[in-house]
Amino acid sequence: MNMNDSYELSLLWLTDSDSYFELDDRTIEDINISLILDDLADNLEGDLVSLLKKVPASADTIEYRQDILNDFINNPLLLDTLKNTLQKCVEIKNMIKFAFESEATLYNLLKRIDEVANVMSLTENIYHMLKNSSIASKGLTLFRDFLQSTIDSDVYHNFKEDIYHIKEMEEGVHSLKVGINFDYNLKPVEAIVLSLEDKPFKYSRKLKKVSKIVNYGFSELKSIPRKIFAPESLMLPDSLNNLEKIIAPAMKQLIAFCDQFNSSLLGVYEPLKQDIIFYEIAYRIYNKMNDGGFPICKPRVIGEGSTKIEGLYNINLAYDMMDSQKNNEMVLNDFGIEPIGNIFILTGANRGGKTTFTQSIGQIYWFSQLGFYIPAKNATIRLIDRLFLHFPSEEIQTVTYGRLGEECQRFSTIYSHMSPNSLLLMNESFDGTSHLESLIIATDVLKALQLLGATVIFNTHLHELGEKVEDMNMDEHVEAPRVVNLVTGSKDDVQSFKVREGKPLGQSYAKEIAIKYGVSYEQLIE
């Protein structure tokens, strides 16, 4: 271990140049994992959402994370112990940062030595945890190997011997052995601390014979050594001023070495603490779904090819069902996207599950590229470079431009940042005007998105939009994504939240909803 070398290890990123995209607060709010965040907040502190905003766009980085998460799933005690140990390391770092320890005194040196001993103990605890666990991931293996090379280094080994020799002194430090160099006038010019001793200094017979020659000022040194040994210093006699100035740099050098040792290790551990919280979030979600009896899987993320998802569901809805003990009522859906993408027009009844399904696709892509397990039975997912949501705005956000104006402006901004590898989820977009005007705007928007080549799910009440699918697919742009009709909410006049390929049904659950809330004609006139 070289104290002058800096070492950077991340359990989230392979390199500093890994590609990624960020989700803004509004996108995260629209995807809706609110119940998950509420559940996590009961056990975890801090801004959890900030850990989930930066989304990898590299299959290698995603696999790197998946492998680490698998290690923690297979070794749950490792995750918990590692989190607690790294937390202790961060507490030591913060204590050092805010402590008043700049003065070169023996008191401060001993305090530093105590901190070094703690850091060494924690370092070895982490190493033995990793060594004794069945880990297979590249990230945790690199961390273990770094710790092993650190502990096996000559610097660490020799320093540890000195540190623990001092710590094992039964009665503490009683004397300080100092080497002093003199100039030609026998005035001290430099010094080095040779050792700390557990026994007080005693005159030897030879020293007694020459004490009358060299003891000028020595009685003062014996009686009031405060300036050297404690921050609450007393002034030394003038005869000892030179000696004080000579010893101080030696003390300062030892304190600086302790600081450098601590900083080199704690500087590695501090960012890893946040990485571990990220994996604790992933592990808790995995465990919650598993214990609740919901399917959850590790997706296969690919750079090119078709997306196929079997048995998907909305994870926020799953949390709600677990709270109300309705786990067995979850409807699972299958979903696929062709290699060059698709434009999906999703229609169906009111409260038929269109928004819930649209959000579930966002959740699955988000979790997949974070390296999490996802709410599905099985999945192969083609990588995306950006995830966008275009959901209705709150009234307060539409004061300046009106609702339609705000939605159009927001879509224009989204479109300008999209590529053929982007995913856009649209929920009842452009319905802030008349039915006919909404249809015209939506048609133009879908044609532009098809030309761009992006993948889109557009869930809408505009059933006429679904009737334009054949015309859109007959466009001369042969390589453009195929437009597909999806329908949800009803089949053979039976309520269903299944999503399937098919033409718009042109009906809703309006009658059923009216009856449920007591506003049907028959109920009102009774």
UniProtKB/TrEMBL annotation:
Boundaries of every DNA mismatch repair proteins mutS family domain copy: 341-526
GO MF, one example: mismatched DNA binding
Transport among keywords: no
Assigned GO CC terms: cytosol
Domain of life of the native organism: Bacteria
GO biological process: mismatch repair
UniProt keyword terms in alphabetical order: ATP-binding, DNA-binding, Nucleotide-binding
This protein's record includes keyword DNA-binding: yes
PANTHER family: DNA MISMATCH REPAIR PROTEIN MSH1, MITOCHONDRIAL, DNA MISMATCH REPAIR PROTEIN MUTS FAMILY MEMBER
Protein name listed in UniProt: DNA mismatch repair proteins mutS family domain-containing protein
Native source species: Vallitalea guaymasensis
Taxonomic path: Bacteria, Bacillati, Bacillota, Clostridia, Lachnospirales
